[in-house]
Amino acid sequence: MTTVGDGKTPSLVPAYNTITNNFFISNYGAGFGVDNDDTSSYYNITSNFFYLGGGVKCDYDGHEKRFSHNLMLGTTAGCWHTCSYKKGFPDHCHDNTFVQANVSRTAEGDSTPPFAIIWFCDAKNVSHILPDYANEVQMGDFIYGNTILNVAGKATVTCGYSGPSNVTTVPLSAFTDVGLMRGTTVGKAPTDAAVLDMARSLLGMKVRKEVNLVAL
Predict the structure, then answer these.
(1) What is the rounded CA–CA span in Å between residue 10 and residue 23?
(2) Of 158, 153, 129, whose CA–CA distance to 141 is shortest?
(3) Angle, CA 85 vertex, CA 80 and CA 91 arms, to 5°
(4) Beta partners for residue 23, in sequence order
(5) What does the pLDDT read at residue 78?
(6) Spatial contact of 123 and 170, defined as CB atoms under 8 Å apart
(7) Residue numbers in the chain where pLDDT is lower than 50
(8) What is the predicted pLDDT for the residue at 215?
(9) How big is the CA angle at 70 (ends 69 and 71), to the nearest 5 degrees?
(10) What is the DSSP letter of 142?
(11) Is residue 94 a contact partner of residue 56, using CB atoms and an 8 Å limit?
(12) I need a labelling partner for 83 at 20 to 30 A (CA). Which of 55, 74, 168, 207 fits?
């Protein structure tokens, strides 16, 4: 037991594991740049640049993961909140920028990938909290302030669990109209040069200038 939690009260609450200022490449079919699965908890993933791969993930009782101020390029869903837990133990996905890759057009004629995936989500009433793991929170309250940029200039969210037959994609407006996912903005995909500038700024990288030496 330590007093790390609030600085004074002995508890089993640990310090956060901070993952920051990294350049992640999720190649060879990697699903996530940082895969928080199987009870992993108390992670602060902030100010990283991700190429491919998904964003924050909660699964199998993991909680207290904070995914913020990251830049993701070529990703589909950036907020993989698969479930929500008891009050006081949510995951957070906020103030990130997701530059999404275009995907093949679906049977419904929509080529916009979801920016968030919430397994326990009622697509007919997104403000309804579906029971799972005795949760008491609305996941849409903890996904906010993100910027989604893609070819279509629009954003969607996937609600559902256990396979494609049980999932439904809904427009972002279904959430924002009821006060959820507040402060989320959507726009057109930037140029490659603009994304590189964003990445350099985030990671504090300087552009090396070429110097031509002239023999005298």
Answers:
(1) 36
(2) 129
(3) 45
(4) 49
(5) 87
(6) yes
(7) 105-108
(8) 63
(9) 125
(10) S
(11) no
(12) 74
Residue 83, pLDDT score: 65
* Amino acid 165: pLDDT: 61
Measured in degrees and rounded to the nearest 5, phi and psi for residue 156 equal: -130, 165
- Which pLDDT belongs to residue 107? 47
The answer for residues whose C-beta is within 8 angstroms of residue 104's C-beta and 6 or more apart is: 111
CA distance 43 to 35: 11
Give the pairing type, strands 71-75 and 49-51. Answer: parallel
Looking at residue 164, what is its pLDDT? 56
Query: Rg of the chain's alpha carbons, rounded to an integer?
Result: 19
Is the Cβ–Cβ distance between 15 and 6 less than 8 Å?
Answer: no
- Residue carrying structure tokens 């908890």: 41
- In this structure, what is the dihedral angle of CA atoms 146, 147, 151, 157, given to the nearest 10 degrees? 20
* pLDDT given for residue 112 in this prediction: 72
- And the tokens for 200? 């350099």
| Contact between residue 177 and residue 22 where contact means Cβ atoms under 8 Å apart | no
